[in-house]
Each structure stands twice: as structure tokens, then as C-alpha cells.
Amino acid sequence: MKTWNAIKAVSIQEVKYIIRDPVSCLVLFLMPFFLLFGFILSPNLVCSHIAVLNGNHDPRIEELFNRIDAQPNIVIVEHLNSEDQITEAFTRNNIKAVIAACDEGTNIFIDYSDPRVASNVESRIIGVVRSLDKTQDILNIRYVYNPTLQPEAMPVPLLIEIILLIISSIMLSMCVSREKEQGSARLLALTPISSAQLVLGKVLPYAVLSLCHILFIFLLFHYAFGIEIQGSAALFLLLCMLFSLDSMAHGLLFATWAKHQLEVVILCWLVFFIPNVFLCGYVSSIAEMPGALRVLSSIMPGTAFMNAYLGIVCRGTGFAENILWFAIIIAQIILISLLSLSGFTHRYSKSL
Amino acid sequence: MNQGVNIINITKRFGRFYAVNNVSLSVDAGKILGLFGANGAGKTTLIRMIGGLIKPTSGECIIADGAKKGDKLSKIGYMSQSFSLIEELTMEENLSFYGTLYGMKSSAVQAASQKYTDYFGLDKFHKSLVSRLPTGLRQLLAFSVSMMHEPTILLLDEPTSGLDAVNRRKMWDAIYMAALSGTAVIVSTHYLDEAFYCNEIALMEHGVVKVHGNPEELAKNVPNGKLIYYFTQHN
After folding, report:
1. CA distance to A98, A129, A335, per residue, from A142 (Å)
2. By C-alpha distance, which of A103, A39, A197, A33 is closest to B70?
3. CA end-to-end span of chain B, whole Å?
4. Does A249 share its domain with A304?
5. How far apart, in whole angstroms, are the C-alpha atoms of residue B24 and residue A193?
6. Which domain holds residue A247?
7. Which tens digits make up the pLDDT trace of B11-61?
8. Which of the residues A237, A309, B171, B202 has the least number of beta carbons within 10 Å of its own beta carbon?
9. Which among A186, A192, A352 has CB closest to B53?
């Protein structure tokens, strides 16, 4: 009986600990919701937008388009009028392929910046064409944005995103919360330095480090695998720096609210890192995510970074075509920075 | 002209709990006010409100004749109850870092740094990482950091806790030195024998100042001259 009482006492103490510790609650009660990521990890659920061009208004080709459109995960979102519109079509509507029928035959143009999605679209389009006409041999497939079909190009944006997320949000927030834990934050708050100066001083080394890592990755991929930036290199660097700043703003926000380093690391991983990596559209198509995750994905800085990366680096698009992604990142930097800085000194100095 | 601290009807409430309740005190330049009381009496909360780390629920604290926020911070020297310097920096780097944040020139930082390391005999630990220093030396370093910009108000939250008798004496000598140079000092402590080192003392209990005055005068009014009487008579 004594043994049982002791076990009971320890269990009750543990339950009280879980209930009274916000981080334990977050991990234990929110974890099951991460099962939702199972939806987006499914390899079959890829919805692709395509455009079509039927220059001769051939009824046989129209029938082919109807068959393709009836496929569960392929949607024809645009009917083009001339071949001149093909290049432009890829930069709009996140189009993965264009089927163009003209006098010389039927050409399929496939966006190969994401080889996984591209091969999926390609095999399904060819499957439909073959099922319609066994003798069909008019297909001429052209790959755009990654014509040499380099699989090495595929992980680059995600790797950059992960590195920037880890350095900018997790490492910075750990450093800030360590000062809270040690108590030095309290002393810093009593010096004449302003919140903005303090934050800027903390952010600067991480910003430089992030930039060095970006340059290193790109030089490595350029010289080792021959990947080049199709658009403006300056615009790409600006994108990386803005994404890094956005991550830092989030990291600071978590650090000012959390009490311990462990708490801030868990917050960063669960609330920021995992959703950004899983919902950015790299793991699976955003169009196929459940409604709530789709909404969440659309406001994630990781999604904006991924889309802008593919636009600038793979398709060579400029600032105007990527303005939405830049706007999302800049708006978040402003909003989250203001949230982090409001009462920063007060919360920062609330040491243990 | 009073360049010290005027605390006027200051209160701090956390929910229904009054950490500090309607306290009024003042310290002139060059004087030492000692705050005494058991754990949870409200000494630390009061010191943090004076420094501006905690916002009072009501009342106010006028520092250095109403200095504005930026000025106010450069006039305050603060030493926390728990050690609060940066452990990953050496003793020398900590002194230099905080001196720079207080807007001191590097020559002034060096001079102040030398003054306190000489005074406390910390020379041989100058290049040591703070995380590797024993508690007593950390306390002496924290005091040096709080004094190096020559503040007009010095807030010391239990500066002698964890110190041996020799270092306690050294610390009090340094506090006298600060007061003699015109700094208004507010110091909290558990040790009642330290009351006689102060010009005035305030005995706190449950957030309220129970007794306030000159320690020698107060001691005359109690049996055996023991200040502990003021605490025991309430319990």
C-alpha cells in the first residue's frame, strides 16, 4: 500500500507539473495535431495547374484536353491563343506544364524547377495521350527552367530555408532567452541602451552569418553542380536577407515571451520551423492541403520564400512578378518586429 | 539640492497580493538607506521599482530631481540579488562591455576597471571567464560594474549575500566610498548587524515599512538594543 501511495503521489505531482507548465501542455496536447502533416506527406496528392494551346482548333486535341482536365489532380487553368504566350504563362498561376498543339505537332512544355512535381505531371499527361490514341507519337517534350534535369537543384531552396530558419530564429532566440535565464538581461535593461539598439546589436552578427551561409551554399552549388541564378542575383540576396530578418523577428518574439531556453527552442520548432518547412509547398502541393493548412501556408514566410526563390532563381522573373511574396515577408517583418519591440525591455528584463 | 531618491506612496500589487504597499522613503545624496526584512518582505520589488524594472501600480519614484528616462538610467547603478553579468565574457570584457553601454570612453572604462580590480584585488582574475569565478568574486565584480560609471544612485540588492567576512567588509568599505563621493545608496540585506553601517534603515514586513529611522536611535528604544525585536514583536 505504501508503494502504491508513493507511485500515486509522484503521478499526481507529474500531472500538476504538466498542467501548470505551458510548454509541457503545448507539447503534450498539441502534438496530435501534427498528424495533419500526414495529409501533406502523401506522395499521390499533387494537384498541378496546366495551360493549353490548340492553335488549329482540332476537335481531336480538344478531346485530349477534356480527358486531361478530367484527371483528378490536373487542372487546366488557362487557354492560350499563341505560342508567344507560353513563356509568360509559366510565370502566372503557378503553371507546371503547357500542352501546345500546332501545325508541327503537339509539344509539352514542363516546368522542371521542381523535378518531383514535373515527373508526376509528365507521366500523367503522357498516360492520357496514350490511352486516347495508341498510335499517338507526336509528343515532343521540352523541359524549361531546369533543362538538364539536375536533381541537385531540387533541395537547394529548402536547404537555404532550413539554414536561415535555424540561424535566424532558433539561434537568435536561444541567445536572447539565455540572457533572460542568466539574469544579465535585467542589468542590460538598466543601461541607457535603447530596445532598438539592443535588438540591432543582437541581430547583426546573425544577419552576417546568414548571408555568409547563403553565399557559401550558392557558390558550392554553382561550382559543384552548375546551378545558376536565372534572374537577378541582387534580388535573390535581398529575398534571402528579408526572409532572414523575418525569421529573426519571429525568434525575438518567442524569446521575449518565453521564460527558458528550452521553452523558446520548443516554441521555435513547433510553431515556426516545422510549419514553415512542411507547409512551404516543397514537401507537397499547397493546392492539395486541407483548407485550414492551405490558409496557414499562404501566410507562412517559408511559402513566400519558396515561391519567390523558384521565380527568381529558376524562372528568371523580376521583382514585379514576385511582389506578392516580397509583400508578405516585408509585412511580417514590420508586424512581428513591432510586436517584439513593444515592451521588449520590460519583458526581456523579466528574468528568473 | 537633493540629488537622491524620493519614493512617494509607492505600491505594487500582483493580483490581490501587495508586494509593496504604500511605501514612502527618501535618500539624500551621500547617504545610505538600508532595507531590511525577511524573504518576501518586498525589498527586491521596491528596489526594482526604483530602478524602473517594474512599473508601480500606484505612486511614484523621483530620481535625481526628476531626471528623464535616458538620463535616469545613466544615473543609476544596479546590482542584482542574483548574479547577472555575462558568464561567457571574461571579467575584463564584462567591465568594458557595460562601461561602453553606459557611454564611457575607452580610457575612462580602463581607468574605472583598474580602480575596482585593484581595490578588490581582482587583478589575477582579469582574463578569467566569469562562469569560472567563485561566488564571492562574482559579487565583487558585479559591484564594480554597478559603480564604474559613477552613478548618482546606487541600488544594491543583497550585495553581501554569499560573501565571506573579509569580502563583506571590503564590500561595505566600497559602499562607504560610494556614499562619500556623493552617491545616494539603497541597499537591501538580511544581515541585521549591517544595519549599523547605514545612515537610515527601513524594516519591511509584508510589503509595508514597519519601522524607519536612524539605526542607533531605533536600537536605543528596544530591549538589549537588538533590532531583531522589531521583527519578533509582530510575529
Report:
1. 10, 16, 43
2. A197
3. 40
4. yes
5. 29
6. 152-348
7. 999 988 999 999 999 999 999 999 998 888 899 999 999 988 888 999 988
8. A237
9. A186
| Helices A2-20 + A22-30 axis angle, to 10 | 90
- Per the listing, cell 558568464 goes with B87
% of chain B at pLDDT higher than 70: 92
Q: Does A179 touch chain B (CB under 8 A)?
A: yes
Q: Does residue A170 share a domain with residue A116?
A: no
Residues of B in contact with A346 (CB under 8 A): 55
- From B205's Cα to the closest Cα of chain A, the distance in A is 23
CA distances from A169 to A119, A177, B75, B165 (A): 34, 12, 35, 46
- How many domains would you assign to chain A? 2
* Whether A184 and B85 lie within 8 Å, measured CB to CB: yes
Q: What is the per-residue pLDDT for A352?
A: 38
Residues B130-153 pLDDT 10s: 888 888 888 899 999 999 999 999
Contact A191 B102 (CB under 8 A): yes
| Domain spanning B5-82+150-232, CATH class | alpha beta
Of A187, A193, A346, the CB nearest to B80: A187
User: pLDDT tens, A95-129?
Assistant: 888 888 776 677 888 887 776 677 777 887 777 77
Q: Determine, for residues A190 and B52 on separate chains, whether the beta-carbon distance falls below 8 Å.
A: yes
For chain A, what is the mean pLDDT? 79
Q: Is B74 on the interface with A (CB under 8 A)?
A: yes
Are residues A118 and A190 located together in one domain of the fold? no
CA distance A198 to chain B (A): 10
Please check whether residue A188 touches B, CB under 8 A: yes
Question: What is the ipTM for the molecules in this complex?
Answer: 0.80
Task: Taking residues A49-72, report their average pLDDT.
Answer: 80
Give the residue from A149, A171, A186 where a domain finishes. Answer: A149
Domain extents in chain B = 5-82+150-232
Q: How far apart are CA B186 and CA B45, in angstroms?
A: 13
